[in-house]
Structure formats: structure tokens, C-alpha cells
Amino acid sequence: MKQNVGTTDRIIRLVIGLAIIGLGIAYGSWWGALGLIPLGTAAVGWCALYQPFGISTCAVESK
Fold first, then answer.
1. pLDDT in tens, 23-38
2. Contacts with 19 (C-beta within 8 Å, 6 or more apart), sequence order
3. Are 60 and 53 in contact (CB under 8 A)?
4. Are 36 and 22 in contact (CB under 8 A)?
5. Strand, helix or coil for residue 35
6. In 3D, which of 24, 55, 18 has the Cα closest to residue 40?
7. Which domain holds residue 41?
8. 56-61, long-range: CB within 8 Å, 24+ apart, which pairs?
9. What domain count does the chain have?
10. Are 24 and 36 in contact (CB under 8 A)?
11. pLDDT given at position 61
12. Which single residue of 14, 25, 56, 60 could bond 42 by disulfide (Cβ 3.0 to 4.6 Å)?
């Protein structure tokens, strides 16, 4: 798997994932478990939804 999630995108996913989990805990809802998805993609650096569309937020390497 080639990384397709850049640094800024990873930070945003981390914050959103933690917020979703926090809201799930605050409201006592299992929907907070959905916060694991953005946390996982931030940790791995790869997003399955970016793959079919050819999207990449990684910095372009210059020669």
C-alpha cells in the first residue's frame, strides 16, 4: 500500500477521530466507535476511499 494521506490530512483525521470518540463517550453511544476509522487511516497513512479516485494528499517528491 502506497501512502496517500499527507501530514495535514493525518492531523485533521486524528482530531476528527478523537472528537467522534469523545462525543460517543459523552453521549454513551456506540456511534463513537466510528471514530476508529479516521484514527486508523491517520495511523496507517492510507485511505481506501482515496484509492479508486486517484486522490493523494501526500507531498509531491521533487527530483
1. 999 999 999 999 999 9
2. 35
3. no
4. no
5. helix
6. 18
7. 1-63
8. 56/3, 56/4, 56/6, 57/4, 57/5, 57/6, 57/8, 57/9, 58/3, 58/4, 58/5, 58/6, 59/6, 59/7
9. 1
10. no
11. 66
12. 14
